[in-house]
Amino acid sequence: AQSVTQLGSHVSVSEGALVLLRCNYSSSVPPYLFWYVQYPNQGLQLLLKYTTGATLVKGINGFEAEFKKSETSFHLTKPSAHMSDAAEYFCAVTHRDDKIIFGKGTRLHILP
Amino acid sequence: DSGVTQTPKHLITATGQRVTLRCSPRSGDLSVYWYQQSLDQGLQFLIQYYNGEERAKGNILERFSAQQFPDLHSELNLSSLELGDSALYFCASSVGVGYTDTQYFGPGTRLTVL
User: Fold this and answer.
1) By C-alpha distance, which of A56, A57, A54 is closest to A46?
2) A96–B98: do the CB atoms touch at under 8 Å?
3) Separation of CA B62 from chain center
């Protein structure tokens, strides 16, 4: 069975600092991995996804994530945080023939 | 704006009642997904329809049912409501049937059961 663990339900970073949101997955077959963002009172929006190919994936708003099979991780990073990045972030895993599983989410706080 | 619309935005009802949530997918999308988001359970996949047919089931209770109509809009029916059904219900749509397709989420319906 697949699962996703997001380390830290809340993460605070200063404006301009590096953002690092951690995601580890469990899957018995090659996974497809996603990061979604949810702004207050809105639905989820896809930031980026990994299916096959290059393990470093670039997404919208300056975010990127690297698929590391040996570490079963798909951490999300952004070099410099902006106030507008404050939101909840969800990591998700699936594979070709199975439904998507979301992590519990990490709320990102940006400190001025 | 994702292009996915959901109505109503808010719904307040009593235990034991039945409600219907409606979703219109993005133009051209054939798949519709329903999710439940609550503080204790997180974001849970309920069910997927593709071009009118049920494609996959997740953690959907027997009291809940859904359908997708010929015009591709979808409805989620929740009956015999319990306090624990209070949650945010999201609809998402995608072009194809595959789980790797990008899903576009609607703004959600907040259901409060009193």
Assistant:
1) A57
2) yes
3) 15
Alpha-carbon distance of A97 to A29, in angstroms, equals 10
Which pLDDT tens digit goes with each residue over B65-85? Answer: 999 999 999 999 999 999 999
Q: Residue B27, exposed/middle/buried by CB under 10 A (0-12, 13-18, 19+)?
A: exposed
- pLDDT above 70 covers what percent of chain B? 100
Token pair, residue A43, equals 């639905």
Integer angstrom CA distances of residue A78 from A27, A67, B99: 26, 15, 26
Name the residue among A43, A46, A94 with its Cβ closest to that of B102.
Answer: A46
Under DSSP, is residue B85 helix (H, G, I), strand (E, B) or coil? helix
* Six-digit token string for A103: 């992590």
Instruction: Please judge whether B43 and A94 are an interchain contact, meaning their C-beta atoms are less than 8 angstroms apart.
Output: no
